[in-house]
């Protein structure tokens, strides 16, 4: 509110709170973790986004129609929000009122902007789901202009220390609000979907700018107008040298992290803080946590064996995550001592992602030791990542900016079998706190074609061989497996704690 000193503003297309459905994947979960950590640290933190009345996407399933996409129910979120006022922005020559809704936790405020004009209500109906390029442009123009007005009216320009633009979709903010020396662009993916472009006529009509380029790439706009570009892992920084070489001089990396209190099982957290965590105590706690997950799994597949090894693959279903590795492993490894837990959903316009959903569902129906959660969300992720025995982390090398699911697993004593990508390379030491497979590719080559197919074959062969090693360890040398699990906790916790991340982002404010 007016008078607040040292305010931090984070403008984001998505954020995953403990209520509601205003996120699609990793970016939203990361921003939610930052929000709760900022509240814990007493930071004056404002996360600004749109109020998506239909959320992102859920799916119904029946045997005849298969998966059917539908909006998400936001009633639980709406009950938690309080209206704090309105701002007015100009869109397509019209004055548009945006109501301002806030979700507060201590010193942190999540701000949701909602268009009240019926002509523009569609812009905030769904996250990442638009009918055409113009609608997408107007959606993020509304976010940019709305955020600019909120900063001026509710925070005060004189009180702002940082304005962080999360991903390129928020990069139009400096076109609406010029505050030199305050903006930073945070790039969360090397993939082309994270670097959208729009016709320069759109910018001329909405902002009055006559760009030379046509189309205009939002990442270039944001990076040019920011004083700093932040990438999210050491390898991501290396890969992005070939994507934004003209802006790399102003870039650095801050490796992502997680909010431990949100993701680490309370019993493990308490034991670690008391200095009581050993191989023996870890084994006892893990047995209890696994029982919580097994209860859920048996509600879906009553015949599952209690002593089975629980192997988890759960990500957003898109090609570069390589869900086909998990599917192939399920088909080829018919060891009844392993339960495969699959999780994730696709964007409703991603035909390949939808095909992976159907494939996972068929595997669940075909095999008694496979369980698939198409309704994978934050609440489900907590239970699955805390209770499994092994996480499969399989992105095509070069395409994963950082990843945090392996961090959430590791702090719960669930080691990963991971491809050499993203933040894995900074955190996993092979055979010490997890296992590695595959090549370390340092570019974003095509995900299809002969080269990609050859990389896939070599990577999968190593994945399968390493998986056999991990299974042998789990069943025949359980104490050694638990030692690796303990190492995962002890080595990850101090390095992935969101406190460390916020201190690197805001060294003069976070203490």
**Measured distance between first and last alpha carbons:** 22 Å
Decide which structural class fits the backbone: alpha/beta
Overall radius of gyration? 23 Å
Q: So what's the CATH class of the largest domain?
A: Alpha Beta
Q: Estimate the mean pLDDT confidence.
A: 96
Strand ordering within the main sheet: 5-6-7-2-1-8-9-12-13
CATH superfamily of the largest domain: Glycogen Phosphorylase B
- Per the CATH scheme, the topology name of the largest domain is Rossmann fold
List unreliable stretches of 5+ residues. Answer: none
* CATH architecture designation of the largest domain: 3-Layer(aba) Sandwich
- Helix amount, in percent? 40-55%
How many structural domains can be distinguished in the coordinates?
2
Largest sheet: 9 strands, mixed
What overall form do the CA principal axes indicate? Answer: globular
Q: Count the helices. How many?
A: 18
Q: What portion of residues belong to β-strands?
A: 15-25%
Task: Give a nutshell description of this structure.
With 511 residues, the protein is α/β, with parallel strands linked by helices.
């Amino acid at each position: 509110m007016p008078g607040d000193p040292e305010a931090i503003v984070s403008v984001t297309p998505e954020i995953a709170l403990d209520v509601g459905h205003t996120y699609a994947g990793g970016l939203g979960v990361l921003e939610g973790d930052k929000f709760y950590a900022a509240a814990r640290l007493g930071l004056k933190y404002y996360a600004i986004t749109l109020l998506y009345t239909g959320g992102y996407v859920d799916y119904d399933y029946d045997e005849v129609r298969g998966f059917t996409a539908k909006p998400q129910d936001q009633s639980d979120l709406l009950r938690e929000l309080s209206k704090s006022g309105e701002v007015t922005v100009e869109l397509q020559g019209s004055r548009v009122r945006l109501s301002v809704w806030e979700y507060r936790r201590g010193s942190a405020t999540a701000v949701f902007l909602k268009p009240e004009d019926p002509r523009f209500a569609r812009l905030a109906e769904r996250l990442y789901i638009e009918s055409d390029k113009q609608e997408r442009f107007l959606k993020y123009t509304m976010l940019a202009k709305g955020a600019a007005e909120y900063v001026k009216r509710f925070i005060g320009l004189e009180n702002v220390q940082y304005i962080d633009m999360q991903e390129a979709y928020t990069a139009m903010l400096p076109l609406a609000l010029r505050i030199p020396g305050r903006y930073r662009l945070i790039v969360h993916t090397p993939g082309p979907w994270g670097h959208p472009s729009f016709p320069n006529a759109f910018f001329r009509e909405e902002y009055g700018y006559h760009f030379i380029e046509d189309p205009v790439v939002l990442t270039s706009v944001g990076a040019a107008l920011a004083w700093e570009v932040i990438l999210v892992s050491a390898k991501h920084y290396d890969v992005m040298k070939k994507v934004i070489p003209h802006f790399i001089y102003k870039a650095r990396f801050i490796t992502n992290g997680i909010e431990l209190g949100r993701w680490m099982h309370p019993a493990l957290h308490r034991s670690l803080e008391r200095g009581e965590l050993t191989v023996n105590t870890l084994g006892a706690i893990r047995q209890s946590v696994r029982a919580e997950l097994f209860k859920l799994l048996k509600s879906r597949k009553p015949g599952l064996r209690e002593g089975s090894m629980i192997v988890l693959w759960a990500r957003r279903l898109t090609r570069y995550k390589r869900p086909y590795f998990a599917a192939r492993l399920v088909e080829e490894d018919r060891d009844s001592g392993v339960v495969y837990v699959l999780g994730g959903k696709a964007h409703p316009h991603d035909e390949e992602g939808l095909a992976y959903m159907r494939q996972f569902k068929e595997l669940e129906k075909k095999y008694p030791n496979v369980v698939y959660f198409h309704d994978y969300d934050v609440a489900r992720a907590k239970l699955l990542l805390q209770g499994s025995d092994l996480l499969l982390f399989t992105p095509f090398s070069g395409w994963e900016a950082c990843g945090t699911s392996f961090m959430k697993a590791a702090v719960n004593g669930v080691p990963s079998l991971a491809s050499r990508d993203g933040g894995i390379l900074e955190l996993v030491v092979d055979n010490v706190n997890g296992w590695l497979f595959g090549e370390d590719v340092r570019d974003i080559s095509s995900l299809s074609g002969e080269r990609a197919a050859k990389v896939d074959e070599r990577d999968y062969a190593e994945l399968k061989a390493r998986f056999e090693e991990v299974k042998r360890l789990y069943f025949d040398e359980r104490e050694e497996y638990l030692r690796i699990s303990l190492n995962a906790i002890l080595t990850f916790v101090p390095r992935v704690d969101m406190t460390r991340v916020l201190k690197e982002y805001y060294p003069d404010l976070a203490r």
